[in-house]
Structure to design on (520 residues):
């Protein structure tokens, strides 16, 4: 078992290594114009310089601020509306397919409209992030509360649980894993859509910086910021997984 | 037996599902009447769909009957009576996000037991079913038999006079079921509770019950009542006795035709 897992890891690391190696050779032998694909060592040096200088702070600050606000909006509206919808079979029948349908529309198409409404700054990024993250949260909240095993509810009722006890001690913990999965997807989607929309029209943020270096023909710096964005995505993902593992393990 | 003596008194209870006139309307239970004396263990047995679990839910106040009434200690009931009646369900109704101990304590919290009292009472109940060492395990870490013992502990912790058990051992293998049946008999002889126990196992019914109510096929009616004259706790030797075998066969004779009916079998 352990040997097999090591095998998977080796192949995964090997895959990335080959990719980087190809990049390295292409850059060294100038097979592609360095304007389009700068040599790997140059990008790496810029990345290290970026980390050392701390000049990423203003942009990171903007992007994280947008992400946190967008996620909080999506999480509170998604959970609240999802719970209310899950209360009756009728509203589930009406709203669950409706939200699922809206979820399948690429909401990023609304972005130009959001820019008109909320401006070029953080407002339009928060709006698009919140819109996109809302759907997985609301859908999972509906599903989570809808699928609570009737056996738990019946057992609690037979023991005399009040409405409040039923909600806090039975419904919430029973629905929690599915709601949490929705929050996780919402968080990731909010991050992706905020980065993406920053590259379309913005005043600041990691996505904004990446585009501005691309437009000023400074691809090495652009790649340095892309590496940095990947690093942040990696850290955020790890953080979310850590929180998820912790709350799942503890008693609900 | 006058009505005042009975712990549970069921009078003409019918239960139908679906609106009247609907061709899909199912009459699960038809005019069931019975009385369970204080300290008595009554088993309900019958073919699948005969309404025995329905009757249990009606007795426990989880379902309002279409007609008829149920009285607990002579008082007509209108909903669950958590201070008087506790349930043990068929499938695991333990809350998987709580430890065994917290499950037992949560039941008491629902019932309204003072906080300080819960832990010692829960440990006592877990001790009674032999699960004290597993108090801090989660349900998923227990075997099927242990889960059902934990459920029994949760019900015992509520200290109700009446215990309603809905095929509690149905999902277990026969050996486990027999051992749990023995334990149950010992435990219940000690607590003196009034118990209604739904089962589809003939041997289990005879081994545990003071009386066995035999149901007909749907719409379920109580066909006959069999008395098992044997003191509690019942030992392993009763399990293998001729007396048990004879009663078991008698029960099988009574049920045989009813079971054929549920299979749509009309051979003479």
């Amino acid at each position: 078992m352990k040997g097999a897992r090591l095998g998977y890891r080796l192949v995964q690391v090997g895959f990335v290594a080959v990719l980087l190696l190809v990049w390295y050779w292409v850059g060294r032998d100038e097979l592609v114009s360095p304007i389009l694909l700068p040599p790997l060592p140059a990008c790496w040096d810029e990345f290290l310089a970026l980390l050392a200088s701390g000049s990423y702070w203003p942009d990171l600050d903007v992007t994280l601020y947008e992400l946190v606000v967008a996620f909080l909006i999506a999480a509170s509206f998604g959970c609240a509306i999802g719970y209310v919808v899950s209360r009756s079979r009728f509203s589930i029948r009406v709203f669950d397919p409706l939200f699922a349908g809206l979820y399948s529309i690429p909401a990023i198409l609304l972005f130009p409209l959001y820019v008109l409404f909320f401006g070029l700054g953080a407002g339009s990024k928060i709006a698009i992030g919140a819109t996109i993250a809302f759907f997985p949260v609301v859908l999972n909240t509906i599903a989570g509360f809808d699928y609570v095993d009737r056996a738990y509810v019946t057992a609690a009722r037979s023991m005399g649980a009040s409405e409040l006890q039923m909600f806090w001690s039975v419904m919430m913990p029973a629905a929690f894993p599915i709601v949490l999965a929705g929050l996780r997807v919402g968080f990731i989607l909010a991050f992706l859509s905020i980065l993406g929309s920053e590259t379309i029209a913005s005043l600041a943020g990691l996505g904004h910086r990446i585009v501005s270096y691309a437009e000023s023909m400074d691809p090495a710096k652009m790649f340095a910021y892309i590496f940095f964005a990947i690093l942040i995505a990696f850290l955020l993902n790890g953080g979310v997984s850590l929180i998820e593992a912790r709350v799942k393990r503890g008693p609900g | 037996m006058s009505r005042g003596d009975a712990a549970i008194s069921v009078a003409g209870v019918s239960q139908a599902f679906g609106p009247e006139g609907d061709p899909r309307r199912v009459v699960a239970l038809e005019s069931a009447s019975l009385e369970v004396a204080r300290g008595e263990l009554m088993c309900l047995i019958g073919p699948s769909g005969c309404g025995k679990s329905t009757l249990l839910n009606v007795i426990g106040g989880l379902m309002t009957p279409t007609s008829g009434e149920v009285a607990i200690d002579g008082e007509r009931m209108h909903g669950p009576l958590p201070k008087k009646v506790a349930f043990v369900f068929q499938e695991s109704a333990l809350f998987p996000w709580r430890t065994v101990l917290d499950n037992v304590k949560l039941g008491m919290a629902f019932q309204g037991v003072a906080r300080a009292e819960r832990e010692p009472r829960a440990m006592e109940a877990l001790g009674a079913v032999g699960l004290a060492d597993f108090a801090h395990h989660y349900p998923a870490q227990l075997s099927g038999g242990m889960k059902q013992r934990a459920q029994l502990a949760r019900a015992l912790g509520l200290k109700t006079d009446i215990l309603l058990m809905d095929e509690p051992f149905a999902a277990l293998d026969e050996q486990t079921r027999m051992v749990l049946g023995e334990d149950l008999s010992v435990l219940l002889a000690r607590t003196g509770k009034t118990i209604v126990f739904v089962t589809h196992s003939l041997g289990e019914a005879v081994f545990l019950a003071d009386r066995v109510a035999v149901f007909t096929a749907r719409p379920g009616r109580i066909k006959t009542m069999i008395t098992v004259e044997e003191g509690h706790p019942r030992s392993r030797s009763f399990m293998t006795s001729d007396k048990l075998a004879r009663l078991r066969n008698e029960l099988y004779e009574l049920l045989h035709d009813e079971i054929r009916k549920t299979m749509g079998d009309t051979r003479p």
